[in-house]
Amino acid sequence: MKFAVFTLGANAPHPLTGEQAPAHERFRDLVESAALAEELGFDAFGVGERHGEPFLSSAPPVILAAVAQRTSRIRLLTTLTVISVLDPVRVAEDYATVDQLSGGRLDLMVGKGNDPRHFPLFGLDEADQWELQEEKFELLRRLWGEEKVTWSGRFRSPLHEVTTQPRPFPRADGRAPVIWLGSATSRASTELAAKWADPLFTANGFHPMAKYADLIDHYRERWAAYGHDPADAVVGSGAGGCYVAPTSQEALARYRPYYDAFAKSAAAQHNRSPFTSLEDNVANGPALVGSPAQIVDKIGRYHAAYGHQVQAIGTEGLDRAERRAVLELFADEVAPELRRALPSRVWEGAGSAGSGIGAEDR
Prior knowledge:
This protein is of the alpha/beta class. The protein is built from twelve helices and 13 strands. The strands form three sheets. It has an eight-stranded parallel barrel, surrounded by six helices. Strand 8 (179-183), helix 6 and strand 9 (200-202) form a beta-alpha-beta unit. This is Luciferase.
């Protein structure tokens, strides 16, 4: 299994101290978090896109460009790019620039986004969200995979023989950067990923395992129906927060203020998470909170249901010292066990000129 550290760039007041960092300090902290993830041996670092408080991650390509200059090995991801509200030409240009700056370390994750504030902010109708996602995703794939693209659609002006610049960093297999489809609530995303033989990333953030397993099962079923080799379907998974401590009691006690603050957030309310307490979420939901052995066991149980090759974790809201302690313990005692038990081909041999996913997995 491979491991990623994800962030949405939240900058809410600390639940224990009430302190809130100035924006410039939070941005510096995001870049240093990526450097720490690389130092500890994580495989990837991802920045999500949000447009509104308490998030500062409205411009992930800018943040990832800074991360690219601070790191040398770690994969760079978007988690995710809200393709439904963006111009695919701009997306192709911005992220090809990041790909060039990083020497080909970019994987792009796209989706329609689950924050209802996005659509009116960009002058779009939320009722069109799935059609927006599909049209813009397919145009983006063409812009990265072809030159002199001629295209017309419903939601933007036509293109005539357009070649976006810069082109993505040249890879050994000649392919464009990998594009993952982010999935949280609907089979529309899993269908799109299966149709184009692209990897799927399940949010796995708010609901019981069965909800996300159903979407992953649909992805695999449709993958086979489109004639792709079932062995090549690739799945990644997020988690509902992560806090690893030497004992389960310590992990629960330390994480509780963060969980309580999250449970009151607009995101939690919008996603209607059914869990009634931290203990309920740990026992029946996606929260990775506990001792190293408990986290290993829980990720293993999720792998049995999802068959995922990449596991992402988030430490949103923790201060630097606490975040380092959690990530160090995860890197030292959780990741090695799961790497041995659950091999993954994702990003194998993907150096600066390598592809994100091996050709056999595409």
